[in-house]
Amino acid sequence: MGEWGVIAALTGRMPAGPLTSVGIGDDAAVVRAPSGSVVAAVDLLLEGRHFRRDWSSAYDIGVKAAARSLADIAAMGAVNTALLVALAVPGELPASWPLALADGLAAEAARAGAGIVGGDTARADSVLLSVTALGDLAGRRPVLRSGGRPGDVIAVAGPLGRSAAGLALLSAGVTATSDALAGLVAAHRRPSPPYEAGPEAAGLGATAMIDVSDGLLADLGHIADASAVALDLDRASLDAGGPLGEAAAVLKETIYSSRTVPADSPPPTALDWVLTGGEDHSLVATFPATVQLPSRWRVIGQVRAVDYVNVASVGVTIDGAAHAGPGGWQHFR
Amino acid sequence: MGEWGVIAALTGRMPAGPLTSVGIGDDAAVVRAPSGSVVAAVDLLLEGRHFRRDWSSAYDIGVKAAARSLADIAAMGAVNTALLVALAVPGELPASWPLALADGLAAEAARAGAGIVGGDTARADSVLLSVTALGDLAGRRPVLRSGGRPGDVIAVAGPLGRSAAGLALLSAGVTATSDALAGLVAAHRRPSPPYEAGPEAAGLGATAMIDVSDGLLADLGHIADASAVALDLDRASLDAGGPLGEAAAVLKETIYSSRTVPADSPPPTALDWVLTGGEDHSLVATFPATVQLPSRWRVIGQVRAVDYVNVASVGVTIDGAAHAGPGGWQHFR
To answer: At what angle do helices A179-189 and A242-257 cross, to 10 degrees?
Structure first.
């Protein structure tokens, strides 16, 4: 299969969506924007930095790349309509690799209701992907990071810390010996954001929303900054047991029984993953306290006015106190 | 300046546009789409493949990256509204480099009427850019590649072959000793597509349109295929003299007087550049013969019915005959 054949095959595996007027194959795509505006976000994924080909299959990487951008659209309260994918792969990869990646992209796009409408391809020394997602607000106002108000509750839809725990298991070379641990590794490889919770939150009157891509503390920090409020989490509401606790125990044992991890680095705790693990792409939002939240939204804290006299209360706190542990993952660290 | 400082500075250099409702800084941007649909295209630019940092400044590369995607939107007959930019740069580059690149992106986006509304950044071993452009059709139908009809004329807006000639001069290490040659090098570094000619063509009733990114023959080949027509160019209408002729003469002399180019490769001709040079991002379109074309549209040929009995007439021909020279540049060659 020649290179043009690969492109043709890729195109065949990336179906248009219900709002696609002109799909892949012309200079540009045309996508319906029924509410008269379009929501758009782009994310870059680089091999070695955002994924490893020996830890994730091509299909997994396609799912993950799509999920990352699709979650951004959902976090505005919008419904996903379309993806555009720029992809570069090394020439030595078999044609089956980009095709499996396309299948992963297409499957996750379809789960969010989006078609794949455009793309570009090139050769590079390592795999790189740039995924642009487009969405429609269906007449709603976008839910920004800046609308949180004192008195609101903080609620999350989707899991926290599972992707980070799965990554920690992969990094330590731990074989997942139980369904619970295997589920964490799968959550790292194929995140499954609750896309439909985004428009749902907008409809319920969410005042601010973000997707958890860099860690709960870091992403809530963006809401705190943009909204000029303080956010206080209830420690008891943060579920850091179950599979996360099991993974932490296994990793602790690994650290003390082998040399695969430096013995002087403290073992991660389940709470660390919940607070600082990104890439689950769950949605966290603030709502007026009077809103009746559907069961998938779990209240985890409250929005408070900033108390500039008490510096420890500024930003994101836990049970009213600053968090002493790691503060979340940052790009460009 | 730390990495977050660079991102903040980048953001400050990428202004929103007139149709930007929510710009850089939230999970996603919101851009108005007044006609109820959005036109979207993405292009990938990789260092070493699409540009060289020793031949182009950061500002030039920004202009070029923006132009490439903006031209795709114009080629649909749409007005550009927004760009989203994913950018990775090596850590050793000074902060001034991505900032100058942002200035180039912003300047070219502004020339097309678009704002820069979103982005993502990362580190990589070499520079890579993915630019997504969004546009609005203002109520017009998109001009596809598939609408060319026998009897239409073929017309082009913008120059042909200038970027390729400039690249040939740079590749051969020829110093531009005249304004004409310097103009070709500048055309390679900073293409200047005639964006407004795209919506103009749509308004005039263009039946098919494409931007010349891979070469006139290759790109007209896409129209011929999609429209199931034959396209015949008038050799006399293709301006292969002037600066292009001067560049060809200088290069021929260089080839025979030095070893910088293998002596057995034939020197390029000006016509080769006109027919196969990409990256000028001029617009080529087919129009009903009755349309009065504004002066920037130069008629260069006619659309004919496919004559399946005469294989030499199929595809794109020149004065009725198949072109014997190189057939245009292809990605993934």
So the answer is: 100
Number of residues assigned to chain B: 333
Nearest to B118 among A29, A42, A210 (CB): A42
Q: Which residues contact B202 (CB under 8 A, 6 or more apart)?
A: B76, B77, B78, B137, B140, B141, B142, B143, B209
Query: Rounded to whole angstroms, what are the CA distances from A138 to A34, A78, A81, A132, A203?
Result: 7, 7, 11, 19, 10
Q: Strand B79-89 relative to strand B128-136: parallel, antiparallel, unpaired? A: antiparallel
**Which of B260, B75, B268 lies closest to B166 in space, CA to CA?**
B268
Ordered structural domains, chain B, with CATH: 3-136 (3.30.1330.10), 153-322 (3.90.650.10)
Cα B215 to Cα A6, A289, B286: the distances in Å are: 22, 61, 16
Distance from CA of B223 to the nearest CA of A (A): 10
Q: Do A41 and B28 touch (CB under 8 A)?
A: yes
ipTM of the complex: 0.92
In the chain, the amino acid numbered A140 is R
CB atoms A43 and B120 under 8 Å? yes
Nearest to A41 among B33, B118, B135 (CB): B118
pTM of structure: 0.93
Find the residue in A nearest to B211 (Cα): A27
Dump pLDDT digits (tens) for A82-111. 999 999 999 899 989 999 999 999 999 999
